[in-house]
Amino acid sequence: MSPWTSYYAATAGGGPRDTLLQALASWTAPPGSALDLGCGTGRDSLALLQKGWQVLAIDAEDEALSQLRQRTPAALQAALTTLQARFETVELSGCDLINSSFALPFCEPLAFAELWTRITRAIRPGGLFCGQLFGERDSWATKGVTVVDAANLQQLLMGWEVLQQREEEEDGHTPVGKPKHWHIHHLVLRRR
Question: Which of 10, 22, 16, 14 is CA-nearest to residue 36?
Answer without folding.
Answer: 16
